[in-house]
Design goal:
The chain is an alpha/beta fold and 238 residues long. 46% of the residues lie in helices and 10% in strands. The structure holds xylulose-1,5-bisphosphate (XBP) and magnesium ion (MG).
């Protein structure tokens, strides 16, 4: 695409984003690069539970194709013909992991990605409504955003839908369909901001236009269906 056409397209997309009634944000990888903290929390939980499991970055990149921490543990456990953990044991292990994640975030935080704070402020200035549609848990959202945005972070978002609030996790559209229902808006009134192929499929299946902000673990995913793909949100002034 030549530069003039790119500028026209980008200006047009800026207008689409600025005129949306609501911006719906994914969390992990989109608001902050959290997956390395999640990976460390998983490994600390495995050690605490006495499991000789360790997920290095290559293993974790493969496992991240499975959305949801409990589902990810189960996918790894099923690599053996006879899984070693029951569903209850997986839930217990995931609770340990979630506690470790909160402690790691509280201890060192995980900064918002470039451009996120400006996009949130810009949306507020334009009177745009804000929502969250994520696979992770409410506890993890609270841990991350209470540090990154302050204790009143929750007042920014009219709807917050987490993975266990709906029957199916991404790439199913359930979290986005539930956010639209809570906002009382149609999909084309909104813009979803995502970082992964699973997230793009989920929002697109709900009929919502998607801006992709590439993240570390998903930068090579297929984003052909996206309205726009940027390296981070600062590429597109808020
Ligand atoms: C990313 C996920 C989550 C996190 C781990 O969620 O797939 O499973 O990797 O968090 P998002 P949990 O939709 O925000 O990108 O262990 O709480 O699942
Ligand atoms: Mg994500």
């Amino acid at each position: 695409m030549n530069q003039a056409l790119a500028m026209i397209r980008s200006a047009g997309i800026r207008g689409i984003i600025a005129s949306a009634r609501a911006l719906i944000f994914d969390v992990d990888g989109t608001l902050a690069e959290t997956e390395e903290v999640h990976r460390r929390a998983f490994n600390e939980a495995f050690a605490e539970a006495g499991l000789d499991w360790f997920w290095d970055q290559v293993t974790y990149a493969r496992l991240l194709r499975t959305a949801g921490g409990k589902e990810r543990i189960r996918a790894f456990d099923q690599r053996n013909a006879v899984p070693s953990l029951t569903f209850a044991e997986i839930a217990d292990l995931h609770r340990i992991k979630t506690g470790r994640y909160a402690a790691l975030i509280a201890g060192g935080g995980c900064p918002l990605r470039p451009g996120v704070r400006a996009w949130l402020a810009g949306a507020r200035r334009r009177g745009q409504r804000l929502a969250i549609a994520t696979t992770t848990s409410h506890g993890n959202i609270e841990a991350l955003l209470s540090v990154a945005l302050g204790v009143d972070w929750v007042d920014l978002f009219e709807a917050i839908v987490a993975g266990d609030d709906v029957p199916r996790k991404k790439p199913a559209p359930d979290v986005y369909v539930e956010v639209l229902a809570r906002l009382g808006l149609g999909p084309v009134d909104c813009i979803a901001v995502e970082d992964s192929g699973n997230g793009l499929v989920a929002a697109a299946q709900a009929g919502i236009p998607v801006v992709i902000t590439r993240s570390t673990y998903f930068s090579d995913d297929d984003f052909a269906e996206a309205l726009l793909v940027v390296d981070d949100l600062s590429d597109l002034d808020a």
